[in-house]
User: Fold this.
Amino acid sequence: MEQEFSSKLLENAVSELARLPGVGRKTALRLALHLLRQDTDVAVGLGRAIIDLREGITYCRVCHNISETEICPVCANPARDKSKVCVVETVKDVMSFENTRQFDGVYHVLGGLISPIDGIGPDSLEIDSLIERVSNGGIKEVILALSPTMEGDTTNFYIYRKLMGHDVVVTQLSRGVSVGNEIDYTDEVTLGRSLVNRVPFAK
Amino acid sequence: MEQEFSSKLLENAVSELARLPGVGRKTALRLALHLLRQDTDVAVGLGRAIIDLREGITYCRVCHNISETEICPVCANPARDKSKVCVVETVKDVMSFENTRQFDGVYHVLGGLISPIDGIGPDSLEIDSLIERVSNGGIKEVILALSPTMEGDTTNFYIYRKLMGHDVVVTQLSRGVSVGNEIDYTDEVTLGRSLVNRVPFAK
Assistant:
């Protein structure tokens, strides 16, 4: 049931806000009334920031990460090791890995994972462009950094097969107990895997 | 800890979205990335709707309800009975009562309730303007439609005292069991009140 407001401007703002994920019409109305109570600067700042974001951001031609330029800052940085490519699912994963400050290579954003049940096949993802990047030479290692889920493993395996025959080392994220997690709370599959894949003790 | 994004536009959008009530930086990032995945029209539509809302909406000079004009549609409507004024806390309450389609009078939005603990005194609210409206004549009934809470009752009583000596009938919302609620789930105070204030049976 659509509620009707006396003001067209309010109706419009509520409808637009309600299109955001996880925001229903009730929440949208609460947000709109909140914005009305703030200084004009606050609402105009938010509105402008959203428009500028969408109009100013594009995707890197090389790695498909979000960027304000044709080539993103990571790919354009001469200090980054272009011979190591970390394959991730989303733009957000790039941020997560960047925040670890443990990686000096570059990325390749797939834009999703293979999931036949959701109708997402390899062609909907940036897999061909990854193979092309590898074919162009200069890449020594492809790191598969996808989620350890059914879809992630399927995608890992698909890419691995596509890369067979190319002169490139394919690695994947180590799997094991999470740092800071108690053994007691770790699931059995992870625990078993961490035992099988045990590594020499490092002090 | 503030996360830093490689893009200033993204950083700005996340910061602005995170100022919304109930939206933290994680949710703000999720919303921003969602908007990036949509067509440009969607994000620009949302941004424009927010700016237009704040710049186009003002408050009715008479009742302090939101309005796109100096006098809101309710106050400007010749079919509404100007002799009955329903006093409410917020703009949202006006919408709730309008949705009932049971009221043909006009409103007066206080903008809050008296709450000494939150530093809200009568002077922060539109109470003087209500008394002035009544003093100007033409109003026969003031309906106190505030929440049945401590603050609501305090505000009700304050307004009631201010209106003493004016030639006006002061009424308040009936209190009793909610329609559709089971007796079993109704609190004792409400139940007691509904018994004391019982009314003749109407079929």
